[in-house]
């Protein structure tokens, strides 16, 4: 244990509750990972923030960088909770559903149905980008992901939610799954994303484009990508395709 500030449960309770236990299953909702144990009332909750990760490694191997919390297993392996920016949190809960309800966390981006997404958007009267970034709407969509979703769905980030048609929301639903599945498949290595993704504009230093100027333009229509601020967050979009 390296930094007690990352704990939402005091260290003594955490240690006493988990010592000798087994991890039996997991459930993820957005950036929250719930680890079930062989005791039904003891559930480990991990929140990964923007940069959190896990590393499973043998005890004979050097401890990974930023592994500020480490779980040791009887088989000689360790599980490191990677916290580069210390925005991550870890602690115990006794009910996943109660925790999600108390924190007002919506369905995960890969699990939300079209009808659920439609209902969430229809009850809000705001700009679509802040609505999608609100974890009450759908869990797990960060800033760049929402920009990518809106780009793939050809919807302007400042579009008012009441103006969205059922077809536009359907396109959003498809785009959410496509973007998340792409990120998972390439383990968020942006340069490996398809060339038609907006992410190459945001991360142009790591862009696969041979021409360094190419990253500034829409990969579909060639229009210069616009940069603005929506809901207090830096936002990229194509002014021609996202009207």
Secondary-structure topology with pairs:
Layout: H1 11-18, E1 23-29, E2 32-37, E3 43-47, E4 53-58, E5 67-72, E6 77-82, E7 89-93, H2 96-103, H3 114-122, H4 128-133, H5 143-153, H6 166-185, H7 199-202, E8 226-230, E9 233-237
Antiparallel strand pairs: 1-2, 2-3, 3-7, 4-6, 5-6, 8-9
Q: Could you characterize what this model shows?
A:
This protein is of the alpha+beta class and 243 residues long. It folds into 2 domains: 4-103, Alpha-Beta Barrel (N-terminal domain of MutM-like DNA repair proteins), CATH 3.20.190.10; 114-237, Helicase, Ruva Protein, domain 3, CATH 1.10.8. It contains 7 helices and 9 strands; from the N terminus they run H-E-E-E-E-E-E-E-H-H-H-H-H-H-E-E. The chain has helices at residues 11-18, 96-103, 114-122, 128-133, 143-153, 166-185, 199-202, and strands spanning 23-29, 32-37, 43-47, 53-58, 67-72, 77-82, 89-93, 226-230, 233-237. The strands form 3 sheets. A 4-stranded antiparallel sheet has the order 1-2-3-7, with no helix packed on it. Strands 4-6-5 form a 3-stranded antiparallel sheet, with no helix packed on it. It has a two-stranded antiparallel sheet with strand order 8-9. Strand 5 (67-72) and strand 6 (77-82) form a beta hairpin. Helix 3 packs across helix 6 (166-185) and helix 5 crosses helix 6. It is globular. The model has no long low-confidence stretch (mean pLDDT 93).
């Amino acid at each position: 244990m390296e930094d007690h500030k990352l704990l939402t449960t005091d260290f003594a309770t955490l240690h006493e509750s988990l010592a000798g236990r087994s991890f039996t299953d997991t459930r993820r909702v957005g950036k929250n990972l719930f680890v079930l144990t062989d005791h039904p009332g003891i559930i480990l909750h991990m929140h990964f923030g923007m940069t959190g990760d896990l590393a499973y490694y043998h005890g004979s191997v050097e401890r990974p960088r930023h592994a500020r919390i480490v779980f040791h297993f009887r088989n000689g392996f360790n599980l490191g909770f990677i916290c580069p920016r210390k925005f991550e949190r870890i602690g115990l809960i006794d009910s996943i559903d109660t925790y999600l309800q108390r924190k007002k966390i919506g369905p995960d981006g890969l699990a939300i149905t079209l009808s659920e997404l439609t209902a969430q958007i229809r009850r809000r009267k705001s700009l679509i980008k802040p609505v999608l970034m609100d974890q009450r709407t759908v869990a797990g969509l960060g800033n760049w992901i929402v920009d990518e979703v809106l780009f793939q769905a050809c919807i302007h980030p400042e579009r008012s939610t009441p103006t969205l048609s059922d077809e536009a929301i359907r396109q959003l639903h498809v785009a959410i799954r496509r973007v998340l599945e792409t990120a998972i498949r390439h383990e968020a290595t942006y340069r490996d994303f398809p060339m038609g993704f907006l992410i190459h504009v945001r991360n142009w230093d790591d862009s696969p484009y041979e021409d360094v100027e190419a990253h500034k333009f829409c990969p579909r229509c060639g229009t210069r990508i616009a940069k603005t601020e929506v809901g207090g967050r830096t936002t990229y979009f194509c002014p021609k395709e996202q009207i």
